[in-house]
Structures are given as C-alpha cells and as structure tokens.
Task: structure prediction
Amino acid sequence: MKYYLISDNTDTLTGLRLAGIEGALASTRRDVACLIETVRADDTIAVLLVTEACYALCRELIDSIKLSVSRPLVSVIPAAGETRGDTGSITRLIREAIGVKI
Result:
C-alpha cells in the first residue's frame, strides 16, 4: 500500500518525503486535476493525501472521488505551519451533537 501527496507547500512535501511518502507540488486547478488522474491510474497507490489549499482548488472532483470510488482513499490534511482550527468535520459534529468544544 503506497501513499501519495498532492501539496501546494514545499515544506509539507519535503517532510512527507522524509517519511517515505512520494508526492508532487500543484499550484493550479489543472495541476491538481492532472495529478489526481495520474494517481487514480496507478493501482499501487492506496491513499491520496491532499493539502487543504489543493482541496479548495478541486473540491468537486475530490468529493466525487471520496464518495464514488474505493481506491484511493482520499484524506485532506493541513499543510506545514497551518492549523485546521475547528473546521474539521469530526470536531464540528461533536460540537453540534453534544455541545462540547474541543
């Protein structure tokens, strides 16, 4: 099972490469879409990591992949130096369900 990263941040890309995860930089919607199609064509890649900025560029495409295919599993991650704050869906769901702020 291989991981692949699509990032707009060189620090994130470098850090994950040190952990053994290959990836590429993308700064435009077209770059992100091309990389996603390349990953989908590679049967050895099981998990696709996408930084939040890249996700924002291709939200519809990435959401359709998350909902319709079993491979690759897509996970949106913050880039190095960024924090998600409380925008994460799990945090929001917990707050809405029980009213506890984490």
User: Anything to note?
Assistant: The domain at 2-98 is CATH 3.40.50.10580 (Rossmann fold). The CA atoms of residues 12 and 80 lie 5 Å apart. The mean pLDDT is 86. The longest helix spans residues 29-41.
